[in-house]
Amino acid sequence: MLMTASAPRRKALVIVNRRARRGSEAIDDALDRLDDGGIDLVAVESAEPEAIADHIERHRADIDLVIAGGGDGTLNGVAQLLHGGELPLGILPLGTANDLARTLGIRPELDHAVDVILAGHIRRLDLGEVNGRVFFNVASLGYSVELAKNLTSEAKKRWGAFGYAIAAMRVLGQMRPFTVFIEEGGVTRRAKTLQIAVGNGRFYGGGMVVEESARPDDGSLDVYSLEFENWWQLPAIVPALRRGQQGRHPAVRTLKTHELTIRARRPHQVNADGEIVTVTPATFKVVPKAIGIYAPLDIGLK
Question: Boundaries of each DAGKc domain copy (predicted)?
Fold first, then answer.
């Protein structure tokens, strides 16, 4: 329900990353609409995790919600401070991929994102966790890590989704399978893989789907491993990755779990929500109903 003149005003800490791809585009109009809709705003500009943490801790006792304006990296930084608590999170999608917003049915237009926050419908979502670091969408190692290292902030801002394609082609020819040991349910499986992705949400990487039935509130992680012998076999599976149907290919291992550990013969970096956050050995867990998010009422979540 939208705020009315008689409804009590809420107070929000708004964290805006103006370095995000659309960080300055229409953001002031969006903030004006939030204020007109009954939310008093304490607005700060920040892109660094340490600064985000400082802002949230400073204002936590005085606010009713946090609103994050940025991409998935900004949202991930906010989640580190909000998970397990009662402060809900509103999203203003200003990034390149905006995969969490896409999962929740929040459209790229900021007017729609503002409407969602003003409507006030909160959903409790799961978070993934890798070595103590939480994530919304996907944590992975292999190809996607090299892609993240090659996709600079400047390229994302200049080229948008096309920047992903440019970086993807540049990295693809450099990839070689590597050996991992996947420990899950008391069983250890050895695999040679080009990439392993562990998904809490549905979308990642600018519109790829971790698994066609994946939901961010189902209490489980969806995992896939691309066990192709050669990098040049990967482009053929891209259409399936866009639909979350890669598990139908015989060279793709999939599983649904609550916890697993991945080890390798040498440390491999792990990417979570587009940021490199840790290295193997890496233990992945699902944290059920860990955070409240303003979301459209009709997205079909529990």
Answer: 7-134
